[in-house]
């Protein structure tokens, strides 16, 4: 679909001067490409989609339809998965904070719960004793040295006493089993060696703790880079691996280790990797002014709409102008495109070098990850989200623009 100023103007009339555009076709293409990269090497691979990255129900429904798991980190996300029809057995419950009632609900329904600490092991032991007729499956989140400067706060220290104690406690339960191991680390460079190191360590832990009996699953988590256009890649001081390169670093080790039909399922939890480039954000130029030596263009969006975790990066963007209604003098030179909030750091794009005029539309790309889920109702409520088919002129509202009542309905007046 060709985006034009006129099309964006028509959409503004219906949905406001700021809105998201979601391309479900690209999302499904990313999903299949990511999964096939791993399955081409290790066929028993599967995706557990990270709801926290973008829990737009339409995306989550698409994952379920394609056979993926729902990876959730809160009871809110768990209930969303149930609401859209995901079977409990297809839900993986992660996260450091799970209330006892949350764990019990998930376990008794048949979901996999990956435990983050020994206190959760104690909770599971109690649930198992109170429900002897129900069989349950848990995983243990592993924390080990990746030679980074920061020590992760999540999971069990695999060299500590509590990790072995967790196995011993859970293995004594007749109706609960440790189905596998899980890990997830956040590293800035997301390097291939980092993922290869995770795979090696997890395979070592499986060999030691499971012996000749293969686990049901080994979950390597997410954190993978997404697809990026060349200009965006240049802003990162390290290589951006492809799906296939990640798969080679991880799945090759699994293929060498497991050769028979009882091999465990390799689970990956991509979020950003398959959602970043499926959404665009459209904002309108509201005002342009010069303050001493700085020219700023005010947009109808904020940094919270497009890059809550990438403040210093300039996202890919295009400007759409009405060439039949130009001001006599269009702005030229370096322009900072700023947001509607009262915060100095609210800059959507630093140093834009092209021309810009009032009434232009700015379309930011790569905004599918951690945007709508982290956007606070700060200054303005969240804008609408519109699904569009790139091959046809078809639009569908899948999240309406938030209103006053959406923000203030929980307050007591």
Give an overview in words:
- The chain is an alpha/beta fold and 413 residues long.
- The protein has two domains: 5-21 and 277-408, Lyase, Ornithine Decarboxylase, Chain A, domain 1, CATH 2.40.37; 24-276, Alanine racemase (TIM Barrel, Alpha-Beta Barrel).
- It is built from 13 helices and 18 strands.
- The protein has helices at 5-15, 24-39, 57-65, 75-83, 100-109, 118-130, 161-171, 192-210, 230-233, 243-257, 272-275, 303-306, 404-408, and strands at residues 18-22, 45-50, 69-72, 91-93, 112-115, 136-143, 156-157, 176-182, 217-219, 265-268, 279-291, 294-299, 317-320, 335-338, 347-352, 361-364, 384-389, 394-399.
- Strands 1, 11, 12, 13, 14, 15, 16, 17 and 18 form a nine-stranded mixed beta sheet that branches. Strands 2-3-4-5-6-8-9-10 form an eight-stranded parallel β-barrel, surrounded by seven helices.
- Helix 2 (24-39) crosses helix 3 (57-65), helix 6 packs parallel to helix 7 (161-171) and helix 8 runs parallel beside helix 10 (243-257).
Instruction: State the major sheet.
Output: 9 strands, mixed
CATH topology value of the largest domain = TIM Barrel
Number of strands: 18
Identify the CATH homologous superfamily of the largest domain: Alanine racemase
The proportion of residues forming helix, as a percent range, comes to 25-40%
Note the beta-strand portion: 15-25%
* CATH class label of the largest domain: Alpha Beta
């Amino acid at each position: 679909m060709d985006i034009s100023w006129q099309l964006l103007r028509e959409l503004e009339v219906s949905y406001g001067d700021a809105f998201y555009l979601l391309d479900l076709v690209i999302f499904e293409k990313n999903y299949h490409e990511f999964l096939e990269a791993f399955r081409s090497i290790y066929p028993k691979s599967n995706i557990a989609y990270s709801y926290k990255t973008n829990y737009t129900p339409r995306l989550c429904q698409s994952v379920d339809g394609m056979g993926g798991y729902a990876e959730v980190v809160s009871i809110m996300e768990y209930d969303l998965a149930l609401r859209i029809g995901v079977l409990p057995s297809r839900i993986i419950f992660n996260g450091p904070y799970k209330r006892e009632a949350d764990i019990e609900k998930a376990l008794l329904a048949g979901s996999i719960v990956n435990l983050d600490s020994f206190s959760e092991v104690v909770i599971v032991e109690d649930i198992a004793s109170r429900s002897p007729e129900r069989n349950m499956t848990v995983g243990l989140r592993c924390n080990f040295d990746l030679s980074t400067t920061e020590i992760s706060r999540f999971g069990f220290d695999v060299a500590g006493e509590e990790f072995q104690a967790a196995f011993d406690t859970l293995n004594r339960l007749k109706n609960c089993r440790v189905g596998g191991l899980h890990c997830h680390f956040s590293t800035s460079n997301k390097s291939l060696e980092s993922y290869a190191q995770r795979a090696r360590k997890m395979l070592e832990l499986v060999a030691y703790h499971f012996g000749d009996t293969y686990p049901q699953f080994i979950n390597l988590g997410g954190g993978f880079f997404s697809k990026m256009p060349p200009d965006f890649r240049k802003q990162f001081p390290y290589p951006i691996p492809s799906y296939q390169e990640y798969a080679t670093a991880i799945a090759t080790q699994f293929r060498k280790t497991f050769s028979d039909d009882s091999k465990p399922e390799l689970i990956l939890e991509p979020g950003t990797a398959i959602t970043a480039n499926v959404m665009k954000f459209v904002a309108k130029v509201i005002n342009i002014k010069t303050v001493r030596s700085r020219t700023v263009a005010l947009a109808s969006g904020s940094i919270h709409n497009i890059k809550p975790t990438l403040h210093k990066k300039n996202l890919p963007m295009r400007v759409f102008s009405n060439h039949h209604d130009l001001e006599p003098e269009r702005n030229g030179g370096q322009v900072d495109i700023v947001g509607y909030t009262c915060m100095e750091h609210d800059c959507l794009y630093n140093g834009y070098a092209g021309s810009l005029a009032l009434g232009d539309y700015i379309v930011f790309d790569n905004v599918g990850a951690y945007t709508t889920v982290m956007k606070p109702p700060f200054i303005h409520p969240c804008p609408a989200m519109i699904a569009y088919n790139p091959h046809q002129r078809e639009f569908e509202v899948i999240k309406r623009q938030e209103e006053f009542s959406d923000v203030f309905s929980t307050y007591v007046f």
